[in-house]
Design brief:
The structure is a single chain. With about 325 residues, this protein is an alpha+beta fold. About 35% of the residues lie in helices and about 25% in strands. The protein is built from 10 helices and 11 strands. The two termini are about 30 Å apart.
């Protein structure tokens, strides 16, 4: 049954769509956390016709065909479940570079559905929004996965217990600091998935399950030592790390500088490290910079914290601007 639009929250909304870190080392496709930086900014207007319009605010070459756009595809699915002729115009200020490994496609998808739902009077649940937004990830990677989408919509740290049916668990987490380095190379998620082994040894699977359970327990118990011990991947990271220059040296030096641990953010090439405080997180950032300065590879860094809110509404207007 289609949803009826409620009173709604106006004709225009501006939202901040956050970057995310997926996998969290051992939790391939099932764990993710939301970052306070970087963010995309998105403007969405409600239309009185069944149409999705995609625009780039800063000239970044985004697909304008909504079916091929990570923000547009979820909205196509959403309006099919709403009564009446409605549509949306989406203006995207793209700050999270596609192929960065910090949830660029998920930011667009999550930002679009949260903004649209706000304009419709919040008629859909967060789980519904994740379901819609996964169509954006399918456009980007060919696969419906929610490890970036869920934290972007729910905030904090999330566990995707199941995709079909969708089952999302929000995990309480200590106030950790996150350091991210984005070397200026591109690793496409599709390519990074294709190089993975199709089969794993049982002994490796058992070790991985232990690390996933330990990491979740560490978050819940606020046990930093357990978190650090559990940030280990014996299945995905050994394969994908070969795509990222300086990976082993960065990981080793960051842990020596006091990081709890970390690894590849999503499919890469960004790397992330978790730290107990800001001073340690900044020391970790310096280690990352030193390695890439030595290699001679351009990079961007972010020292931030876990975003507990997800996509944030910045401005809402009753009338179209």
């Amino acid at each position: 049954m289609k949803r009826q639009i409620l009173e709604g929250n106006g004709k225009y909304v501006k939202v901040l769509a956050p970057g995310t870190v997926a996998n969290l080392v051992c939790g391939f496709d099932i764990l993710g956390l939301c970052l306070n930086a970087p963010n995309d900014m998105m403007e969405v207007q409600l239309l009185d016709k069944k149409e999705i319009i995609i625009r780039s605010a800063d000239g970044y070459p985004l697909p304008t065909d909504p079916a091929q756009n990570t923000a547009g595809a979820p909205l196509i699915e959403m309006i099919e479940e709403v009564e009446g002729n409605i549509g949306f115009e989406v203006i995207i200020h793209k700050k999270i570079k596609p192929g960065s490994g910090i949830g660029s496609s998920a930011a667009s998808a999550a930002g679009a559905v949260v903004a649209a739902n706000h304009l419709l009077g919040n008629i859909f649940s967060k789980e519904d929004l994740v379901r819609f937004a996964m169509f954006g990830e399918k456009v980007a990677t060919g696969v419906k996965h929610a490890d970036n989408i869920a934290p972007g919509i729910y905030g904090g740290v999330t566990l995707i217990r199941s995709i079909f049916p969708l089952d999302i668990v929000v995990i309480p987490a200590p106030p950790l600091h996150v350091t991210v380095v984005h070397p200026q190379i591109e690793v496409k998620t599709k390519d990074a998935r294709q190089i993975l082994r199709k089969e794993v040894l049982l002994k490796d699977a058992i070790k991985q399950w232990g690390n996933i359970a330990g990491l979740v327990a560490g978050f819940i118990k606020n046990d930093l030592d357990l978190i650090g011990r559990s940030l280990e991947d014996v299945i995905i990271e050994p394969v994908r790390s070969i795509l990222i220059p300086g990976f082993d040296e960065i990981k080793s030096r960051c842990k020596q500088a006091g990081a709890l641990g970390g690894g590849i953010s999503g499919s890469g090439p960004s790397l992330f490290m978790l730290s107990k405080d800001e001073a340690t997180a900044k020391a970790v950032e310096q280690e990352m910079k030193d390695v890439y300065n030595k290699i001679g590879l351009d990079y961007h860094t972010h020292v931030t914290t876990i975003n507990m809110e997800g996509v944030k509404v910045l401005k809402s207007e009753k009338f179209r601007v």
